[in-house]
């Protein structure tokens, strides 16, 4: 049985109580994580507030500490990845790549510049703009990419000079707690605290008066609760929320050429990606051909236990999500959708067959809502203006994609899509050169590069009269 420990003010804590962690490939409990009590939460936040005043002062100390954190994550990659597969379900090679990515994120943040802009430098005045840390930042993460989402948030906040309280999802706490154990001595006590616990720990964390900024990734519903919790204290927040990405295939696209990229754009991490393609609109002239190609790929990609070498896609992460995906598929079937392939659970943990549905209505819940599972609805269209309006007819606005040989047309069309990112002939392609965030209900604020640093800091104008 695996048992995790929290990191509070430089010390590891098993806690007095714990909660169970389930392996989604089997549906069985394999570990326990500590249930953080109010006194421990207070200690973590007060420790962070105390550590902040020294931590904020020396960027070279921060750079060196973060480089050390990155090395330790890399050195312990296999152990962290093993836990990640056990609790999240993804195949082990994907778990290792997530851990390696998180180490790179920390390295990248260690080298980041915190800009100081000179707005005026004359005989009359010096006016400069400095980016200052908020203080104690609460970082709250979901269960789909627990390690990389956590370390992206933590590294950006820390290099900017903040202290951090990190809370993983109770479905996937153990890989994050393993990081706590591994990096314990690499940072000054209190600078990074890692706590775990089930509902309502997240709400207690966001309500705490010493928290000045909340960096949240999760569902739209919880994001709105976080924004409401921030309001009484006017805490700042970044919200990276859900998506229902449309992928639009134009009539000139070649089904054989694009099928693989669309398949993985929709089914990577078993569809549990905020920016997965979640609604596929295909011109009616090539819809059947593309559907056939995608179904073949869905049947080839083996679903199973992430520890088995031949598994390409793991289970759905948890029972609630498994039941939700099952219900959405059953509803669609009941309303007359055609199941091209899949459509059922595998009878092994929370594994669900890769599923492709078609002949459904735009009003079906699986089209309107974020399914967040291995199911892709394929919808036909005739007219480009009509498909743009159907793609935009949603509260979501995270990612989106257009598939065509006509790049100039795609470039014009891309600007008509309401989304934080629109890809052409690719999906899920995040670039370190670009910000990442959502429009409408998909988020507030941006992460990545200089936009991430801006999100982890606030501005101060220093205006000196010289004459
Ligand atoms: P949830 O919103 O259910 O939970 C996210 C985190 O918030 C968990 O740690 C949860 O802990 C915590 N939480 C719950 N209630 C509160 C509260 N009132 N205050 C503070 N924290 C709280 O999301 P999921 O974990 O189910 O993640 C899936 C969702 O995340 C999908 O919608 C997906 O699209 C989105 N996502 C968005 C990304 C983006 O970058 N835009 C990236 C990845 C995922 P607990 O479970 O204990 O309640």
Classify the secondary structure makeup into a structural class. alpha/beta
Here the CATH topology of the largest domain equals Aldehyde Dehydrogenase, Chain A, domain 1
Number of strands: 21
Query: Which small molecules are bound?
Result: NADPH dihydro-nicotinamide-adenine-dinucleotide phosphate
CATH superfamily of the largest domain: Aldehyde Dehydrogenase, Chain A, domain 1
Question: Distance between termini?
Answer: 70 Å
Strand content: 15-25%
CATH architecture field of the largest domain = 3-Layer(aba) Sandwich
* H/I helix tally: 15
In which range does the helix fraction lie? 25-40%
Order of adjacent strands in the largest pleated sheet: 15-16-17-14-13-18-19
Q: Count structural domains.
A: 2
> Radius of gyration over alpha carbons?
23 Å
Q: How would a textbook summarize the main sheet?
A: 7 strands, mixed
């Amino acid at each position: 049985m695996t048992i995790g420990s929290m990191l509070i003010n430089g010390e590891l804590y098993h806690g007095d109580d714990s909660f169970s962690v389930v392996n989604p490939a089997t549906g069985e409990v394999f570990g326990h994580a500590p249930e953080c009590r109010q006194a421990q939460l207070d200690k973590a936040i007060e420790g962070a507030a105390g550590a902040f005043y020294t931590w904020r002062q020396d960027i070279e100390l921060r750079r060196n500490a973060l480089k050390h954190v990155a090395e330790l994550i890399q050195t312990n990659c296999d152990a962290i990845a093993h836990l990640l597969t056990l609790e999240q379900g993804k195949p082990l090679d994907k778990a290792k790549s997530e851990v390696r990515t998180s180490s790179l994120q920390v390295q990248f943040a260690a080298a980041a510049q915190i800009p100081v802009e000179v707005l005026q430098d004359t005989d009359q005045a010096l006016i400069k703009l400095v980016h200052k840390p908020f203080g104690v930042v609460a970082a709250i993460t979901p269960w789909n990419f627990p390690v990389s989402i956590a370390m992206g948030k933590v590294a950006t906040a820390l290099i900017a000079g903040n202290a951090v309280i990190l809370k993983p999802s109770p479905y996937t706490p153990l890989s994050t707690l393993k990081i706590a154990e591994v990096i314990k001595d690499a940072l000054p006590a209190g600078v990074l605290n890692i706590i775990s616990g089930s509902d309502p720990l997240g709400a207690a964390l966001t309500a705490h008066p010493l928290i000045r900024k909340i960096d949240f990734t999760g569902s739209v519903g919880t994001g709105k609760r976080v924004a409401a919790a921030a309001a009484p204290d006017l805490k700042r927040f970044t919200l990276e929320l859900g998506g229902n990405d449309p992928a639009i295939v134009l009539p000139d696209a070649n089904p054989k050429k694009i099928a693989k990229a669309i398949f993985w754009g929709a089914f990577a991490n078993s569809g549990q990606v905020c920016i997965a393609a979640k609604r596929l609109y295909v011109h009616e002239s090539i819809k059947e051909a593309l559907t056939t190609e995608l179904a073949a790929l869905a049947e080839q990609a083996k679903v199973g236990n992430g520890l088995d070498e031949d598994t390409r896609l793991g289970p759905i992460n948890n029972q609630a999500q498994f039941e939700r995906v099952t219900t959405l598929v059953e509803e669609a079937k009941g309303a007359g959708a055609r199941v091209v392939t899949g459509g059922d659970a595998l009878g092994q943990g929370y594994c669900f067959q890769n599923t492709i549905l078609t002949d459904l209505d735009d009003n079906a819940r699986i089209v309107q809502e974020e399914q967040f599972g291995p199911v892709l609805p394929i919808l036909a269209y005739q007219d480009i203006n009509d498909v743009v309006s159907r793609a935009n007819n949603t509260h979501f606005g995270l990612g989106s994609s257009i598939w065509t040989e006509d790049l100039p047309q795609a470039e014009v069309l891309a600007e008509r899509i309401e989304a934080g990112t629109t890809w052409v002939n690719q999906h899920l392609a995040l670039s370190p050169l670009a910000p990442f965030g959502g429009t409408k209900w998909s988020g507030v604020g941006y992460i990545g590069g200089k936009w991430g640093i801006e999100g982890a800091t606030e501005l101060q104008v220093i205006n000196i009269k010289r004459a």
